[in-house]
């Protein structure tokens, strides 16, 4: 397994990535026939908007035999209205992950900065282009160290940051703003805001407006997360038009299928859907946090529609498998996140009925947990 260099302000050492690194959650990460409830995927707890599903049902027969618009022009127009940005600033991908790889391919020539733990596709995208990765660990409370990132980024081609971060669920808006303002403008920045629409105050925490004054910034979003359309694979980014054009040159023809495009347009017209989900997340996050804590676990503070849970004793991989086998409930094993260790799982926030089932499943397993 390939070794990476980990740089911090006072330390520099090699470490070996764990086998299976960057495995994801979702029912296909395990024996899917066992899964009764999936809490490993952090999508809108209300699922896809009804009008998005209806658009597929109504237009499937018309669109199935026709090649989709390779430029996603109508979808970009809808995104332009939704975000109040110029359509030329928008890039559309087959999921946000595709755009992460475009960004790495175009802008990472020799080195990249990645705060960890975070979403592992940044790491794989940089590895794919053969560049060196400098990992900047988060603080002990999982907060982002802006000064350390700025210092480490001298001479780097790219920086990858996530707000709120995955898997921690914490916002770092002020720290990320500082990085954007102070890092050398020759360093390109990918800011992943795929979960921003499900935090309590998305307008106060998004930094998308900074693309106007910072020509090196790309802000990434995903209809997968905000509109519950993971199976349709639909992501987008907003940036300076020159960066958008450079990334789009990497796309394959017809990368976004026609049904995903019409579903995306329909979803964007239903702003109440995300607002309802955001209110549910705020309410249920408090309920689920308190219930899990009473069961003997240590849930960690989060601003997002998911949060970390520290286990009393178990290895997180073994705990996930036992929970699934005994209850049919799937949670995210966080041991595959770089610098995460084996003490945490991540749980999504779903509807109250579903959250009750998760709480009871965790309580059931807690009764047989070895506490040492």
Question: In words, what does this structure look like?
Answer:
Helices cover 38% and strands 17% of the residues. The protein has 13 helices and 15 strands. The strands form four sheets. The chain has a seven-stranded mixed β-sheet with strand order 4-10-9-8-7-5-6, sandwiched between helices. It has a four-stranded antiparallel β-sheet with strand order 11-12-15-14. Strands 1-2 form a two-stranded antiparallel ribbon. A hairpin with a 6-residue loop joins strand 11 (298-299) and strand 12 (306-310). Helix 2 (73-83) packs parallel to helix 10 and helix 12 crosses helix 13 (352-366). The model is unreliable at 1-20 (pLDDT under 50).
Summarize the helices and strands and which ones pair or pack.
Layout: E1 3-7, E2 12-16, E3 37-38, H1 50-63, H2 73-83, E4 90-93, H3 96-107, E5 111-116, H4 121-128, E6 132-137, H5 146-152, E7 158-162, H6 173-182, E8 188-192, H7 202-205, E9 217-222, H8 223-226, E10 235-239, H9 241-248, H10 258-268, H11 271-294, E11 298-299, E12 306-310, H12 316-327, E13 329-330, E14 332-333, E15 344-348, H13 352-366
Parallel strand pairs: 3-13, 5-6, 5-7, 7-8, 8-9
Antiparallel strand pairs: 1-2, 4-10, 9-10, 11-12, 12-15, 14-15
């Amino acid at each position: 397994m390939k070794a990476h260099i980990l740089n911090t302000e006072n330390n520099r050492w090699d470490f070996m990535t764990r086998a299976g690194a960057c495995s994801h959650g979702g029912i296909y990460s395990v024996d899917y026939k066992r899964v009764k409830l999936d809490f490993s995927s952090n999508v809108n707890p209300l699922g896809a908007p009804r009008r998005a599903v209806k658009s597929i049902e109504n237009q499937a027969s018309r669109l199935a035999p026709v090649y989709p618009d390779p430029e996603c022009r109508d979808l970009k127009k809808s995104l332009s209205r939704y975000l109040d940005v110029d359509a030329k600033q928008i890039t559309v991908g087959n999921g946000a992950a595709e755009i992460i790889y475009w960004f790495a391919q175009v802008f990472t020539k020799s080195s990249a900065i990645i705060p960890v733990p975070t979403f592992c596709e940044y790491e794989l995208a940089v590895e794919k282009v053969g560049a060196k990765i400098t990992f900047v660990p988060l603080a002990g409370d999982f907060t982002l160290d802006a000064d350390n990132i700025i210092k480490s980024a001298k001479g780097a081609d790219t920086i990858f940051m996530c707000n709120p971060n995955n898997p921690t669920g914490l916002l770092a808006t002020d720290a990320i703003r500082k990085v954007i303002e102070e890092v050398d403008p020759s360093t390109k920045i990918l800011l992943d805001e795929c979960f921003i629409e499900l935090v309590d105050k998305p307008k106060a925490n998004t930094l998308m407006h900074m693309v106007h004054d910072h020509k090196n910034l790309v802000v990434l979003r995903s209809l997968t997360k905000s509109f519950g359309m993971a199976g349709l694979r639909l992501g987008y980014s907003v940036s300076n038009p020159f960066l958008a054009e450079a990334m789009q040159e990497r796309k394959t023809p017809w990368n976004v299928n026609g049904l995903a495009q019409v579903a995306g347009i329909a979803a964007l017209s239903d702003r109440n859907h995300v607002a309802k989900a955001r209110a549910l997340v705020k309410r249920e996050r408090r309920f689920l946090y308190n219930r899990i804590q009473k069961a003997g676990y240590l849930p960690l503070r989060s601003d997002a529609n998911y949060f970390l849970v520290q286990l009393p004793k178990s290895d997180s991989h073994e705990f996930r498998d036992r929970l699934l086998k005994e209850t049919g409930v799937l949670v995210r094993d966080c041991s595959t996140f770089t610098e995460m260790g084996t003490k945490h799982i991540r749980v999504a926030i779903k509807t109250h009925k579903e959250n009750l089932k998760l709480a009871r499943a965790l309580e059931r397993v807690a009764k047989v947990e070895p506490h040492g």
